[in-house]
Amino acid sequence: MEKNDTHFMKLAVKEARKGLGRTSPNPAVGAVIVKEGRVVASGFHKQAGMPHAEVEAFRKVGNRAPGATLYVTLEPCNHHGKTPPCTELILKSGVKRVVVGMRDPNPLVTGGGCDYLEKKGLEVVTGILEDECIRLNEAFTKFITTGRPFVIAKSAITLDGWTATSAHHSQWITNEKSRHFVHRLRDRVDAVLMGIGTVLADDPAMTARLGAKKGKDPTRIVVDTNFRTPAGAKVMKHDSTAPTIIATSVEGNRSRPDRGKHPKGVETLVCPKQGDKLDLNWLMDKLGEMSITSILVEGGSMILGAMIRAQLIDKFYVFIAPKILGGGDGIPMAAGAGPKTMDDSLGLKDTSVRRFGDDVLICGYPKYQ
Ligand SMILES: [Zn+2]
Question: Rounded to two decimals, what is the model's pTM?
C-alpha cells in the first residue's frame, strides 16, 4: 500500500456516490486514474446498461494510462455481461497498478477480476477503504448474496416514543430538514413499502420530491392483505413515473368488479398467507426476483412491528423530535406483541447519530439473535 492510496480511493468513493440510487440492480462504482501523483481521469457507473466506472474513466484518460494506477471502489468485472469485461480494458490500457476497495460480493465471480489481473503481471492491492466501499453498496451486497432486497426502516417518533396521535395524526413530527433527508433516502432506494393502515390514514403519495432536482420516484409497494386500497388513493395515481405494487392475498377482481378499473401501472401481486397475514418472507423473495434491490419501509406501526419480528429489517433510521404527546394513547413505532424482558429487545450496532436542527437521527443495523 502506498501512502496516497487511501486519499485516491476516497476520490473514487466520491465518484461512486454520484451514481447512488441510479445503478440498480448494479452496484454504484467509482474509478480514478492517477499518474505521477495526479488524477488524470475519473468516472462512475451512471446507470444499469451504461458503461462501467472504469470504462468512463478510460474514455477520458487519453494517452496517459500507461504506467498509471487505477483506483476502483469495486473489483473490476472479469466476465462478459452487457459489456466486455473491464479487466481486458485495464490490460490493454497499460496501467501497471490496480487498487481495489472491495472484492465483488457476488459469490459466483468474487476474486476473479483481481486474480486475473495479477496473473497478467499487474500489481493489485485490495481492501483500501474497504468498510466505506462495502457500506456504499450494502444494498447490492445483500441482494446479490441472498436474492432479497436490502430493507431500511424509517420512523419518526416523539420524545415519548409515539409516531402519531390517537387520531392517527402524524404530520409533522419532524422538521423540514429531517423530511428533506427522507426524500433523499427515497431517491436512493428502488422501492418504498407501506402497510394499508398508512394508506388509509395518511393517503401518502410516496414520491421522491426533491424540489428542483427531479428525483427518481421509487416503486411503491402496499402490503394490503384484504385489498382495501381505495382506487382514488394517491399511491394509485400515475403522475408518478414509478409503478405501484399492491401485495395482497385477494386474487383477481372476481369479488369486487371495480378492481378491474385500477389505473395503468398498478400491479397486483397475489401472495400466500401465513396465519391471517401475508407471508412477508415470500414477499421479500418475490420482490428480489423482480430485481428490487432496496426497500424503504415507511410505516405504519403494524407492518413495521411484523417486519421487525420477522427479522426482515437490515437498517434503521429513527428520527426523534423534541415533542411530547404526554398521553398513553398514541400510535407506537411498532405495533403487536413485543418481548417480555429487555434481554430480548433488538439492539443496534454500528450506530451513528446526526442532528437536523432540533431533531436527532439515530441510524444503525439490527443485531438479530
Ligand atoms: Zn466492468
Answer: 0.91
Q: Is 296 exposed, middle or buried (0-12, 13-18, 19+ CB in 10 A)?
A: buried
Question: pLDDT (tens digit, 9 = 90+) per residue, 313-352?
Answer: 999 999 999 999 999 999 999 999 999 999 999 999 999 9
Closest among 287, 188, 275, 189 to 247, alpha carbons compared: 287
149, 293 in Cβ contact below 8 A?
Answer: yes
DSSP character at residue 6: H
Residue 335: exposure state from Cβ atoms within 10 A (0-12, 13-18, ≥19): middle
Residue 51 has which C-alpha cell? 458503461
Of the residues 2, 15, 36, 54, which is catalytic?
54
From ligand 1's centre to the CA of 126, what distance in Å?
Answer: 16
166-323-159 Cα angle (round to 5): 85
Active site (annotated) includes residue 15: no
The total number of residues written for the chain in this structure: 369
What is the C-alpha radius of gyration for the chain, rounded to an integer number of angstroms?
23
Q: How confident is the model at residue 232 (pLDDT cuts 50, 70, 90)?
A: confident
Selection from 26, 30, 27, 28 nearest residue 15 by Cα: 30
149 C-alpha to ligand 1 centroid (Å): 22
Which residue, 110, 113, 111, is CA-closest to 84? 113
CA of 333 relative to ligand 1 center, distance in Å: 42
Pairwise CA distance, residues 336 & 276, whole Å: 14
Distance 22 CA to ligand 1 centre (A): 16
H helices of the chain, where?
A: 5-17, 53-61, 86-93, 112-119, 130-136, 138-146, 176-188, 196-202, 280-289, 301-309
User: In the 8-state DSSP scheme, what is residue 254?
Assistant: S
Contacts of 48 (CB under 8 A, 6+ apart): 23, 24, 25, 26
pLDDT in tens, 122-141: 999 999 999 999 999 999 99
